[in-house]
From TrEMBL:
Protein name per its UniProtKB record: Probable GTP-binding protein EngB
Parts of the chain that traverse the membrane: none
Top-level division of the source organism's lineage: Bacteria
Sorted UniProt keywords: Cell cycle, Cell division, GTP-binding, Magnesium, Metal-binding, Nucleotide-binding, Septation
Cofactor(s) recorded in Swiss-Prot or TrEMBL: Mg(2+)
Biological process terms in GO annotation: division septum assembly
GO molecular-function terms, A-Z: GTP binding; metal ion binding
GO terms for cellular component: cytosol
Amino acid sequence: MEDDRAELAEAARKLFSGPIAFLKSAPSLQFIPDPTAPEIAFAGRSNVGKSSLLNALTNRKSLARTSNTPGRTQELNFFDVGEPLQMRLVDMPGYGFAEAPRDLVKRWRFLVNDFLRGRAALKRALVLIDSRHGIKPVDREVMDMLDGAAVGYHLVLTKSDKVKRTELETVFAATRDEAAKRPAAHPQLFATSSETGAGIAELRTAILEAANQ
Ligand SMILES: Nc1nc2c(ncn2[C@@H]2O[C@H](COP(=O)(O)OP(=O)(O)OP(=O)(O)O)[C@@H](O)[C@H]2O)c(=O)[nH]1
Ligand SMILES: [Mg+2]
């Protein structure tokens, strides 16, 4: 059992340090690629660190575009991992971004929800939560939707470098307790920092495990 975990962790490390390439950007579902590989999607409020986490996981500085201004990612962005192709990572627009024009926010919301609900190739969603803020009402809406559609997801705390250890422990426990009550949430919770690399190796292993399911 222990050996299996170590083997999987090593396979994940190798996979994520090997070939990874941007495939395409889809502004609507019409343009998404054929579902030829297992997919893992990154969801969460604007500015929570979705694109940064994708870069940290893949050890690349600017594979996915990041920015201090919420609303950076405006389309579904697909990244091919492995040669031959083993899985696809999907960076998505953020939800809960009040400053953008309302129609735009609505369009992103529909795009993200329709994708998450209707994609057979989607093996797991990662729902990112800012360690400084914990789960917000808009995160619960997404979790409700995923629970309703029986799409498995992991909650992932981001920006762990921005809070004190004791604060992180508190938000970690509260988030884990809430995940435990959710039918489609995976019980394992991750506290990550794209800045320091904390939790990144563990998350890589979980992603590979989900893709192989
Ligand atoms: N300190 C710290 N800053 C981070 C971390 N992750 C992301 N950031 C910063 O947070 C800001 C937003 O990061 P993004 O990765 O662009 O966030 P996003 O969720 O993709 O945002 P949208 O595409 O707008 O939805 C950037 O300024 C990042 O540098 C982290 O782990 N630690
Ligand atoms: Mg982004």
